[in-house]
Design a protein that fits this description.
This protein has helices spanning about 5-20, 25-35, 35-60, 65-70, 70-95, 105, 110-120, 125-135, 145-180, 180-205. The protein is mainly alpha-helical.
Length: about 210
């Protein structure tokens, strides 16, 4: 069990890292603004589910593969970039439709949850980041390292829920106000598509 004097600075660092502009929080921001708070929160939960996978990969040593194998790293990042291009294409061709708070929209929340998982899991830089970041706070004196890594991953996920949840709520509120105009929603669709293309290019050009 890690002591509070280790967990407190780790949690503070995690919050700051979540606040720093990056692909994941931008993804939550755009989806919340375009499709509402519920969609943004579903994306956030999907991203956090992906973080569970990355934490487990670090604890089991699987993340080392992405750090040492150029082929595995490249395959995963191009899958992720391709998925972002697909989302961009969907955004560019999406019609202006009102945000629905219930009904069919609720049935589609699973789609946004899946988007979050895919977006996070297909980014090998997350595994490598966790591989470099989490072990710095682990100490053999406090028990098995793998268990500590999972615990630290859980704390990081909690910080992510707090920060990304706040982003989803704020952006969703603003988006619902903006989306009252079909013209503005069309512009937001195009901007979202452009953001996805930029994220895809950034991921595709990422190096180990």
């Amino acid at each position: 069990m890690l002591p509070l004097e280790t967990l407190a600075p780790f949690f503070a660092a995690s919050v700051l890292l979540c606040l720093a502009p990056g692909p994941d929080n931008i993804f939550v921001l755009t989806q919340s603004a375009l499709r509402g708070r519920s969609a943004g929160l579903a994306v956030m939960l999907g991203l956090c589910t992906g973080l569970v996978g990355h934490s487990t990969a670090v604890a089991l040593g699987v993340a080392v593969i992405f750090q040492t194998s150029a082929l595995a790293f490249s395959m995963l990042k191009f899958i992720g970039a391709g998925y972002l291009v697909y989302l961009a294409w969907q955004a560019f061709r999406a019609p202006a439709t009102p945000i629905e708070a219930s009904g069919s929209e609720n049935l589609r929340l699973g789609k946004y949850y899946s988007r979050g998982i895919i977006m996070n899991i297909t980014n090998p830089k997350v595994s490598i980041f966790f591989l470099a970041f989490l072990p710095q706070f682990a100490d053999p004196l406090h028990g098995p390292i793998s268990a500590q890594i999972l615990m630290l991953g859980g704390v990081f996920i909690f910080a992510t829920i707090l920060v990304f949840g706040g982003i989803a709520l704020l952006a969703g509120t603003l988006g619902e106000w903006l989306n009252r105009s079909n013209r503005i929603q069309k512009v937001m669709n195009r901007l979202t598509g452009a953001v996805f293309v930029a994220l895809a290019l950034k991921l595709a050009t990422t190096k180990q």
